[in-house]
Protein 1
Amino acid sequence: MNDPDPRESSNKEAPLAEAFTTTVPVLLGYTAIGIAFGLLVYSMGYPWWVVFLMSALIYAGAGQFIGIDLLSAGSGIPEIGLVTLLVNSRHMVYGLSLHNRFHNTGGYKPYLIFALTDETYALLTTTPPVTGSNAGRAYFLVAFLNQMYWISAGMIGFSIGKYIPFSTEGLGFALTALFVVLLIEQLVSCRKKLPFIIAGCVAVGTFLLAGRDNMLIISLVVSIAALMVLRRRLE
Amino acid sequence: MEVHTRILLAIGVMAALTFFTRVAPFLLFSRRNPPRIIRYVQQYIPPMVMTILVVYCLADVDWQAAPYGIPELIAVAVVAALHLWRRNALISIFCGTGVYMFMVQSGAVHCLMRGL
C-alpha cells in the first residue's frame, strides 16, 4: 500500500480540532453501534459498569457483542477467551501494515496498539501520515477521541434502556447482522472463494456432529488444516 | 462462582486476549517479515472466521419448530441485500435488526404460516 504524501501537520491548527475533524465519521458510527451495545447489556440485566469496563478495557465492537452474548449464555471463561481470539484475529493483520507509522510515536505507542480497532485502523491508514515529532500525539488524539465516543455511546445506550418505550426482544440479532456484514466485506475483498466454502461446510458439519458449544474451535482447526492441504491450489 | 467475579474475570480475559491480537504483530515481526506460511494462513483466517461465526449465530435457531428459522433467514437476506447495495454497515445492521425485531415481536411469520 502506498501512503499519500507525507505532510508537516498539527503545527498550525490546534491538534485536537484537527483530530476531531478526522474522526467525525467514526463519531457517527460509534454512536449508533455503541448505543445498541449499551441497550443490549441493559436488556440482559447487567449493571452499568459492565458496559463501561468492556468499552474501556476490551474496546472491540464485535468482540464485545459476542462476549456479552456468551457471558449471558453461561459459557465458560476458556470458551469466551477462545472466541475473543477468533473474532479479533483480524487485528493481527493490521499491525503488520502499521510498523512504519508507529515507529516514532514514543510513549504513545502502547495506547495506539491497544486502541487499534477496525475504524481507527481505517482512519490511520487512509489519512496522510504525520511526520516528525508530532506524529505520536496526532495519532493518539484520533485514537483517544474514538474510544471516548465508544464509551460515551455505550453509557448513553445503557442509561436510556429503561425509557425505551418498546420491547427490545430480538435486539441480539444485531450480532448476527454484524457478522453477516463483516462476511460480505470479506467476500467482496477476497478473490478466492474456496476458503468460505470450506469454512461453511466445516462449520455446518461440526455443528451437526459436535453441537453448537464445541463447534467454534473444532471448525477453525479443521478449516486451517484444510487450508494447509490446499496450499498449492490457493497460493 | 460469584456472578460479579465471573463477569470481571471474563472481561479481564477478553481484554488481555484482544490486546494480544493487536500487539502480536508488533512483538513477533518487528524486524523481519513474517514467514510465508504465516502470511498465507493469515490472509484466509478472517474470511474463514467470519463464515464460521455466521453459522454459529444461526446454529442457535430452532429449525425444527415454528417459525422454523424463517425470521432469521429473512433478516439475514435483508442485511445481505442492503449491504451489497449500499455498502453501509450501519444501515445494514440497523434495518436488518429492526426487521427481525418486528417479526419476532409481532409474530408476523406465525400468522402468515397459519394463513397458508
Protein 2
Amino acid sequence: MRYFLFRLLPAVFLIFTLNSCYNGPSSDEIYNESDVILTQYNKSYDFSSQKYFAVYDKIYTTQLDAKGKISKDSLSDSDAKTLTDQIVKDMVSKGYKQVVKDVNGNFGYQDGSTFVLQEPDLGINALLLSNVTQVNTVVWGWWYDWGYWGWWDYPYYPYYPYYPGYVSSFSYTVGALVVEMFEYTPNATSDTKIAVSWTGVIRGIDTGAKSTNLAKGVNGISQMFTQSPYIQSM
Amino acid sequence: MKRIAIILMVVLGASLSTFSQVTEGFGFGAVSYEVNIPTSSFSSNYISKTSFYGGSAEGRYMIADHLSLGVSFSWAKFYEEIPRQTYQLNNGAVNATLFRFTRSFPIKALAHYYFGDSENIVRPYAGIGIGAVNMRTETDVSDFAFIDNRWNFIATPEAGALIGFGKYSNSGVILALKYNFTTYSENNISNLQYLGIQAGIFFGVGQ
C-alpha cells in the first residue's frame, strides 16, 4: 500500500499541474464581452419613404429599487450628447436628414442663413435603465408616463406607444440603453397611440466605469444601425 | 543514461521491481492526463477547440494472460468563445459574444485484450469502455446562462500500449487513443463525440 501511494502521488500531482493550464475566460473577459445588442422592428413599417428625423436630446436614467419602485434622473448634457450624436451620425449615414427645434419650439433645419420649418417623420428617444437590483419584467412603454412627450408637442396625457405585434416584454437584470424610433404623429388626439417602429437595446451597459459605458453606448448604437439594414431612406 | 532513467523513475515514484508484468492475476491502476479533440457535430456546431483539461483514473485486473477487466473514471472540460457576431431574428437581430462550455464525466466498465508476450516491455492493447456519462453544457450570453445537464450512454473504443519502466518492472507508462461516443444530443449536437489522447503512469497493485 505504501508503494502504491508512493507511485500514485507524483502522477496525480502531474495531472493536476497539467489541468491547471485550463484557459477558460476570466471574469473580466466575460464582462467586457457581456453586452448584447438587440434590435426589433415592425416589418410592415416603410422606413425607406421617411426623410426627416429628430432626436430628443435628453436621456433619462431610471432606477428600480428593491420594491420595484421607479425613480428618475437624467444623464449629464455632455454624456447625452455623446450618445445622441452617434444616433444622428448613423441616421445621416443612412440617408435621413435631421431636424431640430429652434428657439420658438418649431421643428426645422438650417439652410444657409434661413431656418426651414419642417416637421420630422421619425422621432427618436433614448433611455438608460440603470442599477436594476432585481429581475424584473418590464413592459415596453412603462416609462412614457412622465411627460416625456411634452418635448414632442403632445401636450396632454395619455399618449403612449405601442409596438405593432413585434415586442412584448423584456427582462433586465443589468443596465440597458434603450433607443426607440417612432412615427411622429402631429395633431394627435387623446386617443392617439404612438406606433414605435424600431427598438434597439444595449443590454449590459451599466456594469462598469462611466467612460467604459459611454464607449459601449457609442459602439452599441453604431451596431444597432449596422444590424438594421432596412433603416435606409430612399 | 541508465542513471538518468533510474532517477526519473524515482522521481516519478516508480520503484524498480522484480515481479513479472502484465499477466494473469496482475492488477494495476493508472492515472493519466488526457487531451480531447471534439469531432463530428460537437466540433462543427458547438465547440471546436481542443481541450487540454482532462484526465482519468482507472483500475484493471488481468483475468487471463491477454485479457483484463476494469473500471475507469475520467473527465474532460471543453471551452470556446464564439466571437461577437449578429444572429438574425424574425423581427430583428441580436449581436453578442457566446461562451460555450462542456464538461464530460464518464464512468465506464473496461475490457482489454493485450497483444504479444507478457515478458515484453511494450504491451499493445485494444479494448472498449462502456458506461454512463454525465454531460453538462453551458452557453453564456451576457449574464444569461443556458445550462443542460444529463446522463447519457457512452462507448469508448480504445487502442494503446503499456510500456514498462524495465523488463521486470510492474510500473510504467500508459499511452492510448480513445474515441468517445456518447448519446448526448442537445444544442444542435447529435451524439456528442471526441477523440482522446491519453498519457499516464500505471503501477502494479497487490503483488
Protein 3
Amino acid sequence: MGYRYPDDGPGGDATIEAWGADLAELIASAWRGALEVMIEDAGELRPIREVPLTIRAENPEELLFAFLDELLFRKDAEGLLLTLDRPEIRAPSSETDRGEPGREEGTAYEARATARGEPIDPARHRLGTDIKAVSFHQFAVKRTAEGWRARIVLDT
Amino acid sequence: MNPKYVRPISDCIAEIPTDYRACMQVPVHVYATGALLGSMEDGVFEQAANVACLPGIVGHSFCMPDGHVGYGFPIGGAAAFDADTGVISPGGIGFDINCGMRLVATSLNYEELEPRMPQLMDALFERVPAGLGETGLPGLTPEGFRDLIERGMEWAYEHGYATEQDLRRTEENGRMRGADAGTVSERAVERGHRQVGTLGSGNHYLEIQVVDPGSVFDEQAASKLGIDGPGQVVLMLHTGSRGFGHQVATDYLQSFSRVMKPKYGIEVPDKQLACAPFRSADGQAYFAAMQCAVNMAFVNRQLILHRIREVFSDVLHGTPQDLGLQQIYDVTHNTAKLERHTVDGKERELLVHRKGATRAFAPGMPGLPPEFAELGQPVIIGGSMETGSYLLLGVESGAATFYTTAHGSGRLMGRRAAKRRFHGADIKARMRGAGIHVRAKSKSGLAEEAGAAYKDIDAVVEAAERAGLSRRVVRLRPVGSIKG
C-alpha cells in the first residue's frame, strides 16, 4: 500500500494517487495521503480519542469517497485529526467486488473501522494545508493486476 | 501553445465557436491578452466548452483573464442561464461558496505605523483565528448558526459585530434573502458552526497593505472610495464559507448527480457539472442552501473585521472610528445570482454563475451603496502575498460579460511543485527583506503560496481593463501578511 502526490492535478489543490492490495488497504492509504497534506508529522498523532466508523456505500468509489468525507467532517465538526486503521469491509462478493443482482439498495458495501487521534493543537502539530472537501474531479477507483488504485483531488 | 480552435477575435478576446463540439449552445469567450492566453492550460478551454453545453445558457461561456482549471467549470469562469429554462450547477459556483474579498480603509499612515508593525502583527496573529482547527465563536450553538445563515450580516449587526456602513458596503447588503436553513443538512451545520469567524488556510489571508506613490489611477474615484493618497494603510481579507459551504456543495452535487438524468433527462460531460433545472424543487433547494452559505461567508468576514477592529484599538490605543477603520467594500467571487440583463435588446431574468469571477456593476445599476452609485461597483482583486492587489470599478462596457470581471491572479504552479521549489523560511526572509511582515501557521503552506506560483496580477487587471470589464483605481502593496 502507498500513496504519492502527482504533479498533473489542478494547481490549487492536493492530488493523491493511492494504492493497496485490496479495497481496505486502498482506503487506509488514501486517507494517510490526505492526512499528511494537513499535518506533516501524522505519525506523531497520539491515539487519545477513538472514533468508531460504519460506512455504507453502493460501490467502491462511493465507499472511498464517504470515508474521506467522514474523516474531514470529524476534523471540522470535532476538531480531530485521526489516523485510520484498515477497515473491515463486507463486500457483495469477494470474487468480483460487484453488486449481486436483486440485492437491496444501500447495502452493497459496509465497512467498519476505528479512527484514532487527537484534537488539533497548533502549538504541538506541524500543520500543513487544510483540506476543505473531496472533489469528484478526476475521482477514480480502479481494480488493477496488483490490487486497487485511486486518484483523488482534494480541495485545499 | 493554445489549441487551434481557440481563435482571437479582438486583441483581448479569443473565441471557441459552437462547431467545436456538437453539444455547445453558445460560443466560449476567453478574455485574455496574448501572454495570459498563452499561459492558460488546454483544460481551461475544454472546461469552458463543456459549460457551453449546459441547458439554457445565454450569451457566451466566459473565461476571465485569470482563468485556470477548476472542477467542472474553470476557475475564472462565468455563465448565465435563463431563469425559466436554464439550470443551476454547484460546480459553477465553487465549493467555497462566497469566497470573497473585503477591503477596509484606515486613517493611518504607514511611515507612522511601521515601528508598531511587529506588535500589531503578533496581536492579529494571536487573536484572529486562522489555520486548521480554529474556532471562531465558541458559544455559537447549531440553533444560533441556523439563524445566522438565514440573516447574514443583519445577524452580525444585531449582535454588535457590524456597523450600518458595513452592511451597506457589502454586496447584497450582506444578506441574500432567499436563504432557508431548512435546505441545509445537519452535517453542514455541524461543520459550519465552529468555523464562523475563522480565516482558514491555503490561499486565504489577512493583509495589511499600503498605497504607494504613483499607484493611484483615478484620484477622484479613489478619494470617494476612501483612498486618500500615498502612505495610507488599508486592510484586505480573503476567505469564504469554510467547511460549511463545502458541505452544502458536496451534498447537492451528490443529490444532483443522482437525479439529473432519471428525473430531468440532463446529461453532462463531467460529473462536477452536475446540475438541475433552476425552477425545479431540487434547483430551488440548492439555491436556498447556497444563499445560506453566502450569508455565512459574509458574517465570517465580518467577525474577522470585528476582531481586527478590537486588535487595532488595543494596540494603537484608539477607537475604530479614531483609526478610520471603515469598510470600503466586500465582494463575493463564488456565487450564482438572479439578475436582469438585456440580451439582444430584450430584458431577461438570468441566473448568473460566477466562479472565481467578480460581479462588476456599472455606474447607476441597482444594488450599489448610494454613495458609490455614480462610481460603479467597487471590485477587489487579490494578488499573491508577495506582489499586490487592486481596487477596481465596474464599467458600462461590462455588459458584454453580464458585468463580470476577474477575481485574482490565478495559480501558475501547483502547490506540490511550489513546496518542492520554495521553502517557507526562505520566503519569509525574502518577504521581510521586501518590507513584508509575515505570520503563518504553516511553513509549508507559506511555500505553496509563493508569489512565483501565481500569474502576474498586473497583467490580469490590465487585460480586464483593456477588455472593458473593469477599470483600475488603486494598486495596493502588502506590508503585513497573516496566513492560516
